[in-house]
Design a protein that fits this description.
There is one protein chain. The protein is an alpha/beta fold. It folds into three domains: about 120 residues, Rossmann fold, CATH 3.40.50; about 230 residues, pyruvate-formate lyase- activating enzyme (Alpha-Beta Horseshoe), CATH 3.80.30; about 55 residues, Beta Barrel (OB fold (Dihydrolipoamide Acetyltransferase, E2P)). Helix content is about 35%, strand content about 20%. It is built from 13 helices and 19 strands. The strands form five sheets. It has a six-stranded parallel beta sheet, sandwiched between helices. A five-stranded mixed β-barrel has the order 15-16-17-19-18. Strands 7-10-11 form a three-stranded parallel beta sheet, sandwiched between helices. The chain is globular, with a radius of gyration of 22 Å. The protein starts with 6 loop residues before the first strand and ends with a strand. The model has no long low-confidence stretch (mean pLDDT about 90). The chain binds iron/sulfur cluster. The site of iron/sulfur cluster has 10 residues, from helix 6. Belongs to the methylthiotransferase family. MiaB subfamily. GO terms for molecular function: 4 iron, 4 sulfur cluster binding; metal ion binding; tRNA-2-methylthio-N(6)-dimethylallyladenosine(37) synthase activity. It is found in: Cytoplasm. This is tRNA-2-methylthio-N(6)-dimethylallyladenosine synthase.
Length: about 450
């Protein structure tokens, strides 16, 4: 095998889609005989799986490339690859080649399946290779999938996005939406369950529009119903949901499928209709609030999380107050808050009314203060309850304890034996913090 005796390390930036892409690349490499290593310094192949949604992520990649360059000086056989969304942007491959000429392989998001062959090409030809296909890549099935990593797995259901939110680069780098066929998704999940997986997270930029492009029309609600019927599977999660496409049929389906977890990540982005329109989000604050009411009516106790952007071009203090007001009304369990950062090639980057950094920072601070208060209050209200937790392993912050997540996606830390990793346990919640809950295993 081509990779026999060779090692690799993948460094992943960005979202769960990228995490899944990195897993896929690792599976391909291992099927070709490569061995993963933890330490970049020991790897014969280093892949940076990049994100371009925020400028910060790109800067991190260049910083990392600078660090890796010294390994190349010590080991000229080292192959350095940059893959993922950043590479997919127009002109990006040239920029990377200029700034980091020691990079051997540039690999677009649609070319990942060719990875082992391209590495061999780099090694044989002893010259850099660029493989970046634009537009829509094919939906490639039957790629090797290594044994599952523990009890949880990501499963991609759609690639790309059709929405063109004005601040977002994703449709340009990942192409238009393509859905995988339900039979391929189900086969993958059944295989994962055979290997001990009990929780799957279905991935897509907009899972709610799943299936619209398929010949045999299947909705996301249909797909969830099929996945719910997979024997041995215990939990189903899904990200990301687009509020515009979250139908009442879907709300009702989710409420009756026992394996679908009571958590929705529902990015609202802004609370002002004027800004939502400028963002091209396709819903109003009133429609969003109605959807939240509908979800809470059908699924009591549901965990709701969101994404919010402050300082979008033209955002006035009044617009921002509407965002604060919406956050106070909804009372999200948690929110990922960002300052608007213009991405070259998007509509929003060219909009008038770009705000000074200080204004964005100050608004972000106010928003975070409000959300942190709400998150803490919501967690405090849960103290005393016994909840089902899927144990993920030793806690990252306190390795003497275990950590895991409730069905509502709350992080819980509690004492317990590491052998419980991958199992469902009942935990009594004893203490609340803003970002997590503490507890103890309940024998009752
Ligand atoms: S829904 Fe909007 S924000 Fe999400 S990936 Fe598509 S264009 Fe980007």
């Amino acid at each position: 095998m081509a990779g026999q005796g060779k090692t690799f390390k993948i460094v992943t930036y960005g979202c769960q889609m990228n995490q899944r892409d990195s897993e896929m690349m690792a599976d391909l490499l291992q099927a070709a005989g490569y061995e993963p290593v933890d330490d970049e310094a020991e790897a014969g192949l280093i892949i940076l799986d990049t994100c371009c949604v925020r400028e910060k992520a790109e800067n991190k990649v260049y910083g990392k490339l600078g660090q890796i360059e010294k390994f190349k000086s010590a080991n000229p056989d080292l192959v350095i690859a940059v893959a993922g969304c950043m590479v997919q942007q127009p002109g990006a491959a040239e920029r990377i080649r200029q700034q980091a000429p020691y990079v051997d392989l540039l690999l677009g998001t649609h070319n990942l399946a060719e990875l082992p062959r391209l590495i061999e090409e780099v090694r044989k030809m002893r010259r850099p290779v660029v493989a970046v296909q634009g537009g829509e890549g094919p939906v490639v099935e039957n790629l090797p999938r290594r044994r599952a990593r523990g009890a949880q797995a990501f499963v991609t259901i759609t690639y790309g996005c059709n929405n063109f939110c004005t601040y977002c680069i994703v449709p340009y780098v990942r192409g238009r939406e393509r859905s995988r066929r339900p039979e391929d998704i189900l086969k993958e999940i059944e295989d994962l369950v055979d290997q001990g997986v009990i929780e799957v997270t279905l991935l897509g930029q907009n899972v709610n529009s799943y299936g619209r492009d398929l010949e045999n029309k299947v909705t996301f609600a249909d797909l969830l119903t099929m996945v719910n019927a997979v024997a041995g599977l215990k939990r189903i999660r899904y990200v990301t949901s687009h509020p515009r496409d979250f139908t009442t049929e879907l709300v009702e389906t989710i409420s009756r499928l026992e394996k679908v977890c009571e958590h929705v990540h529902l990015p609202v982005q802004a609370g002002s209709n004027r800004i939502l329109e400028l963002m091209h989000r396709g819903y109003t604050r009133e429609q969003y609030l109605e959807l939240v009411t509908n979800l809470r009516r059908h699924i009591p106790g549901i965990g709701l999380t969101t994404d919010l952007i402050v300082g979008f071009p033209g955002e006035t203090e009044e617009d921002f107050q509407e965002t604060l007001d919406l956050v106070a009304k909804v009372e999200f369990d948690n929110a990922f808050t960002f300052m608007f950062s213009p991405r070259k090639g998007t509509v929003a980057a060219g909009l008038p009314g770009q705000l000074p950094q200080e204004v964005k920072k100050e608004r972000l601070k106010r928003l975070m203060e409000l959300q942190n208060k709400i998150s803490l209050a919501k967690n405090e209200a849960l103290v005393g309850e016994v909840v089902e937790v899927l144990v993920e392993g030793p806690s990252k912050t306190d390795p003497s304890k275990l950590s895991g997540r409730t069905r509502t996606n709350k992080l819980v830390i509690f004492p317990g034996d590491a052998e419980l990793t991958g199992r469902l346990v009942n935990v009594r919640l004893t203490k609340a913090q803003t970002w997590l809950l503490k507890g103890e295993i309940s024998r009752a």
